[in-house]
């Protein structure tokens, strides 16, 4: 089926966070795709809306079955119904876990550069960020296990937030890397919260490894956040789940989510999820991944031919390109502002992701090819003007 990813949808004037920009600007920053949701999802929402009554909802057996089938078939993760808890989003779940399983002033490990909202969930709840910087060598990122164990062994470290697959580096962590991380966390009595929202956005033919699927140690010492929202571009629907195999952790997490009032579905959350995690949803997602990979290859080629002083970090997941601009500056914030002012291209400055992020820009390539080409041309012009300024 042709899902028409080349078609341009005008999102201005629709209350879009991403597109709330000046008329001449091109936003390629926040992790929000410029493609309409899969037809099966739109039909499900339209059918639900046509009913006309939007009262309090429940979670039917089909909701649990959809998660169980999807992760079993596509990711090799065995899930039992009782191990799943509905939540309105991954970040509400993370913030709830931070409040429930740590106390003020304790430390939480994150591997930087990493999704910036992790910092917010930690700091806003009165806990302390403890960075385990990823090692960057030859254009690739890997874990620093020696430093990780040092950070985990701190008596005040009680939780680690894992980004799997990694955003913004786009790494799919191997089973061996995850097993080693899980073993160290268990050794030092540190709970793992694994954010796996990007798991369905891998390159064609590439699979991610769910942290809880690695071994019994990882499975029983973790809370995993899952959702259809990122892969299917339905973040505004507010629908996610946490997977908690260990019964004691699960009971505490369930109580905490209900206390925080983030454990009840809105009128469209269930229907959208069931449609996403269907055979039709998989067909759309497969086509999307092919298209996004084509966009990534276009970026690699453009950088190689037009911007030899930029390194587009090789990646196997997400639609967020991580561009090493260290040959231009060590202040990506200043460069991001300059490019936006001079060309209208709005990308993310890497400094907000911690670690060595100040040397990078993050570029969202989940858009029609013609939009991407416009963005790359603006990037080239911005970098040329930066050099000549």
Count of helix runs: 12
Q: CATH architecture of the largest domain, please?
A: 3-Layer(aba) Sandwich
CATH class of the largest domain: Alpha Beta
Principal-axis shape equals: globular
Structural class: alpha/beta
CATH superfamily of the largest domain: Type I PLP-dependent aspartate aminotransferase-like (Major domain)
Between the first and last Cα atoms, what is the distance in angstroms? Answer: 48 Å
Q: Order of strands across the biggest sheet?
A: 2-10-9-8-7-3-4
Helix/strand order: EHHEHEHEEEHEHEHEEHHHEEHEEEH
- For the report, how would you describe the main beta sheet? 7 strands, mixed
Fraction of residues in H or I helices? 25-40%
Q: How many structural domains?
A: 2
The low-confidence runs, each spanning 5 or more residues with pLDDT under 50, are none
- Average pLDDT metric: 97
CATH fold description of the largest domain: Aspartate Aminotransferase, domain 2
In short:
The protein contains twelve helices and 15 strands. With 389 residues, the chain is of the alpha/beta class. It has two domains: 26-39 and 280-388, Aspartate Aminotransferase, domain 1; 52-278, Type I PLP-dependent aspartate aminotransferase-like (Major domain) (Aspartate Aminotransferase, domain 2, 3-Layer(aba) Sandwich).
Structure description:
The chain is 40% helix and 15% strand. It has 389 residues and is an alpha/beta fold. The protein has two domains: 26-39 and 280-388, Aspartate Aminotransferase, domain 1 (Alpha-Beta Complex), CATH 3.90.1150; 52-278, Aspartate Aminotransferase, domain 2 (3-Layer(aba) Sandwich). It has a seven-stranded mixed beta sheet, sandwiched between helices. It has a four-stranded antiparallel beta sheet with strand order 11-12-15-14. Helix 6 (175-187) links the parallel strand 7 (157-163) and strand 8.
């Amino acid at each position: 089926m042709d899902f028409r990813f080349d078609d341009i949808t005008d999102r201005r004037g629709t209350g879009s966070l991403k597109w709330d920009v000046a008329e001449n600007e091109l936003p390629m920053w926040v992790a929000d795709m410029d493609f309409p949701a899969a037809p099966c999802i739109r039909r499900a929402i339209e059918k639900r809306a046509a009913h006309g009554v939007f009262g309090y909802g429940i979670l039917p057996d089909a909701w649990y079955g959809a998660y169980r089938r999807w992760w079993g078939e596509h990711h090799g993760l065995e899930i039992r119904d009782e191990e799943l808890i509905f939540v309105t989003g991954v970040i509400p779940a993370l913030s709830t876990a931070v409040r429930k399983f740590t106390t003020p002033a304790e430390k939480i490990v994150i591997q930087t550069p990493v999704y910036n909202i992790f910092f917010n969930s930690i700091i806003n709840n009165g806990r302390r960020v403890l960075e385990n910087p990823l090692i960057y060598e030859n254009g690739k990122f890997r874990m620093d296990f020696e430093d990780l164990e040092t950070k985990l062994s701190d008596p005040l470290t009680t939780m680690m937030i894992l980004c799997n697959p990694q955003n913004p580096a786009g790494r799919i962590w191997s089973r061996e890397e995850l097993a080693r991380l899980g073993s160290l966390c268990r050794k030092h009595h540190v709970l793992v919260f694994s954010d796996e929202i990007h798991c369905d956005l891998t390159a064609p033919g590439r699979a991610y490894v769910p942290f809880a699927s690695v071994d019994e140690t990882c499975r029983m010492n973790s809370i995993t956040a899952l959702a259809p929202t990122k892969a299917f571009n339905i973040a505004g629907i507010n629908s996610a789940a946490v997977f908690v195999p260990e019964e004691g952790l699960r009971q505490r997490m369930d109580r905490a989510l209900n206390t925080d009032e983030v454990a009840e579905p809105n009128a469209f959350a269930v229907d959208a999820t069931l449609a996403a995690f269907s055979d039709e949803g998989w067909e759309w997602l497969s086509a999307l991944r092919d298209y996004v990979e084509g966009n990534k290859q276009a970026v690699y080629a453009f950088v190689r031919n037009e911007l030899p002083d930029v390194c587009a970090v090789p990646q196997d997941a997400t639609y967020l390109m991580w561009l090493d601009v260290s040959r231009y500056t060590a202040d990506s914030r200043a460069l991001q502002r300059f490019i936006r002012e001079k060309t209208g291209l709005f990308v993310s400055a890497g400094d907000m992701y911690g670690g060595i992020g100040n040397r990078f820009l993050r570029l969202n390539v989940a858009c029609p090819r013609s939009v991407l080409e416009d963005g790359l041309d603006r990037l080239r012009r911005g970098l040329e003007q930066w050099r000549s300024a």
